[in-house]
User: What shape does this take?
Amino acid sequence: MKKGDKIKVLLIDNHPLVLDGLKAVLETFHHIEVVGTAGQAQTGLELACQVRPDVLLMDINMPKLSGIDAIELFKTQIPETRIVMLSMHDSREYISSSVMHGAAGYILKDVSTDEIVSAIETVADGKTYFSSGVFDVLMEGQASNAADPLTPRERDILGLLLAGKANKTIAETLGISQATAETHRKNLKKKLKIATTAGLIRYALDHGISTKTL
Amino acid sequence: MKKGDKIKVLLIDNHPLVLDGLKAVLETFHHIEVVGTAGQAQTGLELACQVRPDVLLMDINMPKLSGIDAIELFKTQIPETRIVMLSMHDSREYISSSVMHGAAGYILKDVSTDEIVSAIETVADGKTYFSSGVFDVLMEGQASNAADPLTPRERDILGLLLAGKANKTIAETLGISQATAETHRKNLKKKLKIATTAGLIRYALDHGISTKTL
DNA sequence: GGTCTTCTACCCACTTCTGGGTAGTCCCGG
DNA sequence: CCGGGACTACCCAGAAGTGGGTAGAAGACC
Assistant: This one.
């Protein structure tokens, strides 16, 4: 982007409240222009293809298409747009996935609006921006990062676990042996360094694993 | 309040983003005046005592003093102020507690800003306002409400369960026998009609049971 | 071709949970 | 004073989960 131009920002958040609020706030800054808002990733993507924003501010928790999955779509469709994720959570998983998927920034929703503006300016300038707490999380994750992304199968197991299924039922559902289901569960615990089932449930809920019904 | 006067609104939310956004949006309506904002219930209360707002818009999820507990404080200090709770959750528990504590309205954060304005107008007029989904929840709760309130002890157990404790550990922590802990857990399941531990965890998370550390 | 990961599956001993009871004490409200 | 809820505690047999292994097949990567 040329210096002196307004920074074109696109907002995506499923809370109209946040969307309108953010828009209203950002519009008080004359070097920032909100070129569009969307309530979900899908419509946001279409909009983005038309308006080609400099910066995309996107909520990480969205129903249909999660923010994290959406990052990839945006990166392929409009690679020049810098993506900043907005989140309520400072969870490792979210943060590192976002970064790994190519987000240029990650800010928590409890930061001040000034900080959001800084974030927008910073990423528009080609740099990356992470709110204070986030950076720490990234650093600590550096050490043991290879340990936690789950395999698809493990996600299946976690989804069923979340639904309250026992190993036996999980095995039946997935058409595998009970022993295998147990193995997967063991691996999950080892991998995530979570000792208890309760912990796994919380992990699943925190990390957007969806309840498997099948 | 006299007709023709602006509706004085006080906002309390621990997310500066929501706070600023809401303020910016509400200020575009000339019959509404945001007389103050606060990031937590405590400071909000002090502020409210000074400015005597007509309507208080308060987030239900706040760290120190939860929004629900705060309702009572506000009701005693400034009974004339109408309270509208803002929440991300449509959980029965939250909604019914809010209403029982004396909230005049309950709106979900995923509603449009227009609806928020309607809510403010409605409660300022002495009526109550509940966003669509909320009313249903209240009604359904009417039928089977006696079935689920937990006893304090059961909440303790649930909190520890949430922390991933086994019956044995729970028993030690609470200074009771393991058998008793098991009995409580059984009663919880029976009472809530939840068969699995995973289900209990989700229930606990949904209903604001906090993780016991002790 | 060798290495690595993923998914599968099994062994074993041990612990924990489950679901069905019963039952005593305490305290509150009618 | 009696009923009922809350909290406590125990019995039991069977089901489920834990934690430690090992290991083969398939596919990906170099």
Remarks:
- Strands of chain A lie at 7-12, 32-38, 55-59, 82-87, 105-108, 129-130.
- Chain A has two domains: 7-143, 152-206.
- Chain A has a mean pLDDT of 76.
- The two ends of chain A are 48 Å apart (CA to CA).
